[in-house]
């Protein structure tokens, strides 16, 4: 049975407290410098892998107990972090918004009420809630009906002005436009599932006799489906939305059921269609069209929905490396700090917070790491991770990180199939990151002596399949590290075992729950 975010947070916080309070083991008669030297020798051997000959590799390991640097190579170089960027976004959000922060979505009335008739407009106003499902908008519509509204003589107004109108990041690749992990950002958005993939719809195909049946989650007529797929002996199907349209074209062959998460072109209008349909279902008729605008001055609240608090949202955000959560939180920080729900305002918050906590070599272009112009040095990441250990929200932050080798999607997250049956399993808590030619792993691990360590591993510009096993070998070696006893190095279980042949991307990018 799937655990709730709240229960996951509660359980992980216990581990967080234990990790944060674990003392460094006292020295024995053995020279601690020998253990550090052996660690450096072993990491150098791991990094001598031929796949990195033409690549760039930056690695930093520090004691979180006393700040001692235990290993460093290319520590100050600016490297592409991919989703390691989320380490900074999540921390800045916890600091700026607070763990109790909730997104609100409101239904407002503008005009004069006379019995069940609203002589004016009905307004749906959002603040970016990435957890709102179709059923939540249906509940909001039911609440409006329960207030006695039966007829609206004016318009349905979708108010998404809490954020600006820029939907996509400046540096995002054009060919990611229809992918759910690069969905447009809006203050009014909807998710099709409880991974909270905001701004997308699940399009499902299945063989039905001699034809291919197409369904969507949620059920909606927002998309125009062009079904050219045929039933075949294998499933080799392409589901793709045409650029700048609501048209989804399906081609290829279908044998087994297949799902594709497709980003919608306009989240605000998509949500408005869901809400309008639910209003009609609950007996609320709107005579006017749907428009997009700010709520009129003097509009009063009829009904409101609140999201889960940020403390719980951090779990699906970080465990599953959700890009859309990162960008929504970025704009929410901009709105809170500067009164502007923009990327520029939010990125300033993240950048300033990173630098205030020891990350001096940074270039932040988005909140998720989808931009290839994002840049951090491994030294900056390691220093930042050490610095935030003392923050009052650290336990929730630490609990949100993927746990090596734990098969539960909302515990192990993007590390659930890695480092199993090693000293790192259940020990390493770290953020993954991957783009084609980029992989990174940064986080926390407890050594064999019980010493808390922070580390950052960033590998860029390789031409092979993703060398994530190199990250795993280093992380396992850190779990084996001892200052006071000889270490028997065993890295045999370091290779990822996801079963996914496309090793360039995290499972969360490929979406199937079994990945």
UniProtKB/TrEMBL annotation:
<keyword id="KW-0121">Carboxypeptidase</keyword>
<keyword id="KW-0645">Protease</keyword>
<feature type="signal peptide">
    <location>
        <begin position="1"/>
        <end position="20"/>
    </location>
</feature>
<dbReference type="GO" id="GO:0009002">
    <property type="term" value="F:serine-type D-Ala-D-Ala carboxypeptidase activity"/>
</dbReference>
<keyword id="KW-0378">Hydrolase</keyword>
<dbReference type="InterPro" id="IPR000667">
    <property type="entry name" value="Peptidase_S13"/>
</dbReference>
<dbReference type="InterPro" id="IPR012338">
    <property type="entry name" value="Beta-lactam/transpept-like"/>
</dbReference>
<dbReference type="Pfam" id="PF02113">
    <property type="entry name" value="Peptidase_S13"/>
</dbReference>
<keyword id="KW-0732">Signal</keyword>
<comment type="similarity">
    <text>Belongs to the peptidase S13 family.</text>
</comment>
<protein>
    <submittedName>
        <fullName>D-alanyl-D-alanine carboxypeptidase/D-alanyl-D-alanine-endopeptidase</fullName>
        <ecNumber>3.4.16.4</ecNumber>
    </submittedName>
</protein>
